[in-house]
Amino acid sequence: MTTPATSPVIHFSAVSKSYPMYAAPSHRLKELxxxxxxxxxxxxxxxxxxxxxxxxxxxxxxIGENGSGKSTLLQIVAGILQPTTGNAKTNGRVxxxxxxxxxxxxxxxxxxxxxxxxxxxGLSTAEIDARYAEIEAFAEIGDFINQxxxxxxxxxxxxxxxxxxxxxxxxxxxxxxxxxxxDIYFRQRCMRKxxxxxxxxxxxxxxxxxxxxxxxxxxxxxxxxxxxxREIGDTESVVSKYLAYMVEKDSQFLGLGRKExxxxxPAAATVAPELVTTIPNIDHRYGDxxxxxxxxxxxxxxxxxxxxxxxxTSIVLRISARAKEPILNPNIGFMFRxxxxxxxxxxNTLREGHQLPEMWPGDTTTVDFHITLPELYPASFSFSPAIxxxxxxxxxxxxxxxxxxxxxxxxxxGQVYGYLHLxxxxxxxxxxxxxxxxxxxxx
Length: 443
Known about the structure:
The chain folds into 2 domains: 10-245, P-loop containing nucleotide triphosphate hydrolases (Rossmann fold); 285-410, abc- transporter (atp binding component) like domain (Coagulation Factor XIII, Chain A, domain 1, Distorted Sandwich), CATH 2.70.50.60. It is 22% helix and 31% strand. It has helices at residues 25-33, 70-78, 110-120, 125-139, 154-166, 184-199, 211-217, 235-253, and strands spanning 10-22, 41-54, 59-63, 85-90, 94-97, 172-175, 203-207, 220-225, 228-234, 285-286, 291-299, 308-309, 314-323, 330-337, 343-348, 364-372, 375-376, 380-390, 395-401, 405-409, 420-421. A hairpin with a 2-residue loop joins strand 8 and strand 9 (228-234). Helix 3 (110-120) crosses helix 4 and helix 3 packs parallel to helix 5.
């Protein structure tokens, strides 16, 4: 998207936020009695020197582990909290969907809370009257709209909260993880509405652990780590680095360092009879480099290199790797992504029931994945190859290459509705054959 040359809708300049932490409740009272001349607390910094700008119509996503400061940042944007140091400014009407049901009075009915929240956001009674029917219809909670919110399930609460937030015509929409409690039907409706708001020029600040959603809607993404900005920029790049960090952290947690083997290293390296040594593209690469992907190629079953994917045909995805250090449990695989960067499908040698032999320094291996392509919608798709050391749940990533090979999916014989066409056989007015165990006795 093109960023307009105007002042940002949201501006953060060296924003930090601290909270006092007391060892015991009585220490807070002691500090008050001494008029803060004696400190009985330590400062916990939820945010440290955070700076960024968000412009009108931009969808800006924030990712990070729990406790990284994401919710604190959103509350500052919404005006609920003030920064301890630094400058934070938000221009325009802000509608926030933060903590579940925040801003709702549990004793009030859903309808009363609609009027209360919309009034807080600056709408007149006449404006709320004009939009109430749409809010009620989108929430789809039926007669519960006239019942106290304290009787609502978490899903009903978020339905109503989201419906209010999107119908007050906000300039800025803040969305935290609250949508995660909704059912799949409502989440899909919410995501469609988010796309509509983007098209109307609404600025969206979106916080989520659902990386697929972040990739699908984010123009830019910021990665927060322990209250500091770890990375900010293009969504695909930031998400790739974040996922790489999380894989590495998980490996460290599992204690999967280098393993020593009593096996004797072969005198001569094993060389695969056929290798591919071309990597067309590297968007991002990570791993401990004990083994590396050295090539990837899509070919027809007879070995011809492919430059276009045809729906419903068979292809061979060939991946070659070389070991630099001992790899006791090598596992080679790939991730298949669509044009939005969403992980569409993936597999690996262990997932397919194939245990590769140990690899020693200098050993090479080539794995051919024979794939029958489904009938997918015409778009570009990429393959991200990888080699790891370990099993399916406990492994050390050696090398991962984001979007190493990208090919266009051609047009099939018919229209594809949605993402793919499922193999299907149609019968009309037919009768299903009864199972032998439940077949009727002719006697």
